[in-house]
């Protein structure tokens, strides 16, 4: 028994692994391990029985957590958009634009995957939609089966890191950080990962053109009466829209100053990107509306089609992410607006039905219940693990790693990479992150950057052969047997499971490269966050002394009645009776300056309070 008592934390961790190996669901394994070792710890007198009485309060706290409401909101939004045909319209329109290029269809899948990620945040919806729509088209025109599979699966996983991502919500909740800050930090890394995918496809188009053939002329459906495809009109509209966005981006401080009525000298990069993008798209939409109403022929059919297909999801992106980044709405409120916007878009497209709504609500309820049960189990386990000084054991274990911060980061990422073979991102977030985050915080590592780094790493869990969930989703919709193509009438070969696995490996390596880039250049995350204002309390103290020492050596109470007049004692929490903030409000929030309280000498009261 002494051995168990002295090694309680590592034995508890091994016990959890045994529960998981036996095949029990993760949520029940966490809860069962927590309760079993909790009772064992009380019996061995490792911690008091009162620890278990805290459990109901912790569970009630989970139910009252408003941040987690964003999970069902964003899930419902994504499911409604996916089932209302938005992905199909986007793939058709963007495919027509890039089809004439080698690798154009693959580029269209990546771009549409990023747009679906920014509007849905659900990997399953993105992978299944693009698998059903784009896979037959890519195979029809001679794309490599492995490449087509890898592009679809990898593009669907962008929903993990591009806001509004569900995993970012969970990570922010587990780390005690703002979801909005987590979204801001992941904004540029998410789109940088998309850029790596595009560069890889472009390299294949140059060096392996047979793998990514261009779309033949007969497959291009949008034609003008003159026989042209309308690319010139689309290019001019895109150029004008880009110039408007660049102008807004470079003059964003002036725009904010005009809007707020005061001088604004700094605007975060993510806000510039979102507002500039929305300004450019609004300009394009305005031109398209004028062209349709007046029949002036300003735009080609292709340009008008692309504009009206792209604007609604981009508007939804601004409604959700723009309001969060600009501080207008919380992530939960943004998710609620996004769900309502998805319902409005589906209604306007005449795709909303009771059957669709019922199916989306059913799936949303299942996912939200899944997350809640895992969180309850993880809370039980972590509460007992912390009572047994488990974090101290983990900290001592990891503090002995060579290399300091870099060694810690390499070890953590290798650990998460291998755990992702067996656990999905929800399970990793609830089991691993609560253990690692406090250690990273003590080592001085920015938790927002650490969270984004883990999110990109956990994204690989969807592409791991043979356990990647994105590969399972694609396998469920990819043809397993020979089939007859509906357009050409030819018999097409199936897509094998090994081809899906082979196609995922290059994109898995690209994701690991993104992890390395984030470790090497943390500014990709931290530069997007709001600048923190550091207050030098010593300078504040000296300034107060200088002001009090001016003139007479003793203060004139008649000249400063608002500060030194007798008043009621300070209320608990750090504010004095006249409403002035105490030292706790300016500093750590635990002490207060009761000026005019018990001491008759105000200078002595200030010195005593600041000296505490």
From TrEMBL:
Q: What is its main location?
A: membrane
> What keywords tag this UniProt record?
Cell inner membrane, Cell membrane, Membrane, Transmembrane, Transmembrane helix, Transport
Query: How is this protein situated with respect to the membrane?
Result: Multi-pass membrane protein
A family per Pfam: DctM
Descriptive protein name: TRAP transporter large permease subunit
Q: Where is the composition biased (Gly residues)?
A: 574-587
User: What are the start and end residues of every segment in region (Disordered)?
Assistant: 548-612
Species in which this protein is naturally found: Comamonas faecalis
């Amino acid at each position: 028994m002494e051995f168990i008592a002295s090694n309680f934390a590592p034995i508890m961790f091994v016990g959890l692994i045994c529960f998981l190996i036996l095949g029990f669901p993760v949520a029940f394994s966490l809860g069962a391990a927590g309760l079993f070792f909790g009772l064992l710890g009380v019996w061995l007198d490792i911690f008091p029985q009162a620890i278990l009485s805290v459990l109901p309060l912790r569970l009630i706290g989970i139910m009252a957590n408003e941040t987690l409401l964003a999970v069902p909101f964003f899930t419902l939004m994504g499911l409604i958009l996916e089932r209302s045909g938005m992905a199909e319209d986007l793939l058709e329109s963007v495919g027509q634009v890039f089809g004439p290029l080698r690798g154009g269809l693959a580029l269209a899948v990546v771009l549409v995957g990023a747009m679906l990620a920014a509007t849905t945040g659900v990997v399953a919806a993105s992978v299944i939609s693009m698998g059903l729509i784009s896979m037959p088209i890519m195979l029809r025109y001679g794309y490599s089966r492995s490449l087509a599979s890898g592009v679809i699966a990898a593009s669907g996983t962008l929903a993990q890191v591009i806001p509004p991502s569900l995993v970012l919500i969970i990570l922010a909740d587990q780390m005690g950080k703002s979801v909005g800050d987590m979204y801001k930090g992941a904004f540029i890394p998410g789109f940088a990962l998309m850029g790596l995918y595009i560069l890889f496809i472009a390299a294949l188009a140059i060096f392996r053109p047979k793998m990514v053939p261009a779309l033949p002329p007969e497959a291009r459906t949008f034609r003008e009466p003159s026989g042209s495809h309308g690319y010139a009109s689309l290019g001019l509209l895109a150029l004008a829209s880009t110039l408007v966005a660049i102008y807004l981006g470079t003059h964003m401080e002036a725009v904010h100053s005009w809007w707020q009525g005061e001088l604004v000298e700094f605007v975060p990069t993510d806000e510039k990107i979102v507002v500039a993008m929305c300004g450019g798209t609004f300009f394009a939409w305005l031109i398209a509306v004028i062209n349709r109403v007046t029949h002036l022929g300003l735009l080609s059919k292709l340009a008008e089609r692309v504009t009206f297909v792209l604007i609604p999801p981009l508007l939804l992106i601004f409604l959700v992410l723009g309001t969060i980044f600009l501080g207008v709405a919380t992530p939960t409120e943004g998710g609620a607006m996004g769900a309502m916007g998805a319902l409005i878009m589906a209604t306007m497209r005449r795709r909303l039905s009771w059957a669709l709504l019922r199916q989306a609500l059913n799936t949303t309820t299942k996912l939200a219940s899944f997350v809640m049960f895992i969180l309850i189990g993880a809370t039980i386990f972590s509460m007992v693990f912390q009572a047994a000084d488990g974090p101290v054991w983990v900290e001592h274990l990891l503090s002995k790693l060579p290399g300091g911060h870099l060694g810690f980061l390499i070890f953590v990422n290798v650990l998460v990479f291998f755990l992702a073979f067996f656990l999905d991102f929800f399970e990793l977030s609830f089991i691993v992150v609560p253990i690692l985050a406090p250690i990273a915080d003590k080592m001085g590592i920015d938790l927002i950057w650490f969270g984004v780094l883990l999110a990109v790493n956990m994204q690989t869990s969807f592409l791991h052969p043979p356990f990647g969930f994105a590969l399972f989703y694609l396998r469920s919709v990819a043809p397993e047997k020979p089939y007859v193509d509906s357009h050409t009438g030819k018999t097409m070969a199936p897509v094998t499971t090994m081809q899906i696995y082979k196609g995922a490996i290059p994109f898995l390596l690209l994701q690991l490269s993104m992890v390395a880039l984030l470790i090497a250049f943390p500014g990709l995350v931290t530069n997007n966050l709001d600048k923190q204002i550091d207050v030098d309390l010593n300078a504040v103290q000296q300034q107060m002394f200088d002001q009090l020492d001016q003139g007479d050596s003793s203060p004139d109470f008649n000249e400063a009645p608002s500060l030194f007049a007798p008043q009621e004692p300070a209320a608990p929490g750090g504010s004095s009776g006249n409403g002035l903030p105490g030292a706790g409000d300016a500093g750590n929030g635990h002490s207060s300056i009761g000026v005019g309280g018990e001491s008759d000498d105000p200078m002595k009261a200030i010195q005593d309070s600041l000296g505490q």
